[in-house]
Amino acid sequence: MRVLAAMSGGVDSAVAAARAVDAGHEVVGVHMALNRNPGTLRTGSRGCCTIEDSLDARRAADLLGIPFYVWDLSDDFVEDVVEDFVAEYAAGRTPNPCVRCNERIKFAALLDKGIALGFDAVATGHYARVLTGSDGTAELHRAADAAKDQSYVLAVLDADQVAHAMFPLGDAPTKAQVRAEAERRGLPVAHKPDSHDICFIPDGDTRGFLADKLGEVPGEVVDEDGQVLGTHSGTYGFTVGQRKGLGISRPAPDGRPRYVLSIEPVRRTVTVGPAERLAVAALRAVDPVWNCPAPQGPVEVHVQVRAHGDPVPAVAELRGPELHVQLRTPLTGVAPGQTVAVYSGTRVLGSATIAGTTSAAGAGTSAGTSAGTSVETS
């Protein structure tokens, strides 16, 4: 096959490209330039898409003896990832930019361009597996290494995208073995630190980044009865489940910590309350994407709402354009804007964007019931 290897300049994508070459594919490396003003050097494990990263990717491609190109996708990245990120926070939601990047850049813009140029697949350094099902179709599964599994951020891929995806590291037992393989191959990135946090906010100051983009939008921090406890400079500085940095002037009457329960950007209010009010019994999600036939009727599944979160048993059901999920085990700190990924065993069935939740408070001990009050339905 003709394979387009996405090479970020890190160890995972370099080894993935090497394995694709070893498998006998005709491989071409491509580095996606996503930053309009790339820095010269990374700061440890922070940031990506720097000049250093592009040079590291080129050196790896040269060592593998494959053609290498840099494609400027910065306009797509700004529009589809950065601007989307800002708009979601402004609307009181909590997005995952890595999910959006995989959906709209790596497996939309990049894959579409690759297919148009005659490539059969895109190979990346993600830790996930594409297996052939009993009906001959491609299935997306969790990686062999549960600690590195990245299937959650890939759950937004549709069936056609999964069919054209290649994840050579999916069967790798551990990341340490991938680094050891890179060293044996003589790849100069063998010990390069992994990148963390949000790539376009290399200093890690998400609140400062959003403040620069959105300006001050002052409002009030209130309790569940509407009593004003403090003020803030923008609801975008908060996420559901947040405990620190709430700007509260006095403790709760019982002395227990408060947490963000909901965010109302129109009224400019942030509602806080006790930890038990964070427990969620049900989810309502929109814009579902399936890489298999959409489920008919209620189905027993496992769902995951964070990249490194634990999957929990649930019942999922499509009701018109929405996905409704009853959780067998309540989850905490679930926010609108997050992605809910749906699994059957190790297989990813699809995903949707959380639009609202139902609190487990008052639902008794029967996990997964629909009892409770709405915490956030924006």
TrEMBL record:
Domain tRNA-specific 2-thiouridylase MnmA-like C-terminal residue range list: 282-354
Region ranges (Disordered): 358-378
Major localization class: cytoplasm
Location in or out of the cell: Cytoplasm
Catalytic activity: S-sulfanyl-L-cysteinyl-[protein] + uridine(34) in tRNA + AH2 + ATP = 2-thiouridine(34) in tRNA + L-cysteinyl-[protein] + A + AMP + diphosphate + H(+)
Active-site feature positions: C101 (nucleophile), C199 (cysteine persulfide intermediate)
A single cellular component GO annotation: cytoplasm
Swiss-Prot/TrEMBL keywords: ATP-binding, Cytoplasm, Disulfide bond, Methyltransferase, Nucleotide-binding, RNA-binding, Transferase, tRNA processing, tRNA-binding
Known EC number: 2.8.1.13
Signal peptide start-end: none
Site residues, Interaction with tRNA: H126, Q338
Pfam families: tRNA_Me_trans, tRNA_Me_trans_C, tRNA_Me_trans_M
Keyword Transferase part of the UniProt annotation: yes
Residue stretches making up the tRNA-specific 2-thiouridylase MnmA-like central domain: 208-273
Entry binding sites for ATP: A6, M7, S8, G9, G10, V11, D12, S13, M32, G125
InterPro entries, alphabetized: MnmA-like (IPR004506), MnmA-like_C (IPR046885), MnmA-like_central (IPR046884), MnmA-like_central_sf (IPR023382), Rossmann-like_a/b/a_fold (IPR014729)
Sections of the chain in a coiled coil: none
Region named Interaction with tRNA: 148-150
GO biological process, one term: tRNA wobble position uridine thiolation
Gene3D superfamilies referenced in this protein's UniProt entry, alphabetically: Adenine nucleotide alpha hydrolases-like domains, HUPs, Translation factors
Matches recorded under CDD domains: MnmA_TRMU-like (cd01998)
Family assignment from sequence similarity: Belongs to the MnmA/TRMU family.
Function, as annotated: Catalyzes the 2-thiolation of uridine at the wobble position (U34) of tRNA, leading to the formation of s(2)U34.
Name of the protein in question: tRNA-specific 2-thiouridylase MnmA
Organism in which the protein naturally occurs: Kineococcus rhizosphaerae
